[in-house]
């Protein structure tokens, strides 16, 4: 199991410990531990990461399938290795795959392992080349690949793309989602978040918050 920590919001406060208080309702909460292994934090972590992905404005969506990893107990190392082989082949062929964010799922009915990928930058791929290289890398021949159109609004893509899959998975069955993804909230190429993932999360919260201009009722205090 990956959810190995006790829920952080239910722990007793200690003297001198910072906490959050809602000045309108009087509600008091301990500070979140922000660990993926915490049942109270994993859903929030996944939601923040999905906003950061959206903020990066990826250009393509790619879904890769497998034929031999049905109901695999630990699929991420094999998916990672196959993705590495694919990227090495692209480099040899002079094909720019861009930078990726990968989230692994398994089908509810047959347990088929597949990878949802958001692509930032990179060129549009030739389907014949991609199919050949996918099979030689160990992926299945079936895939989906499409551009993310700015004029359609990113929200339309989120409805069926990486961010939705990630936040849905970690909300519905966090331990299962962590198992499929090696204990992490997705895997990202170096350069997907140029200024770092934490900064991207902060920037995306400011950019997409509907109440960005309204003062928050939550303040931080020290427990006495």
Automatic annotation (TrEMBL):
Name this polypeptide is given: Replication protein
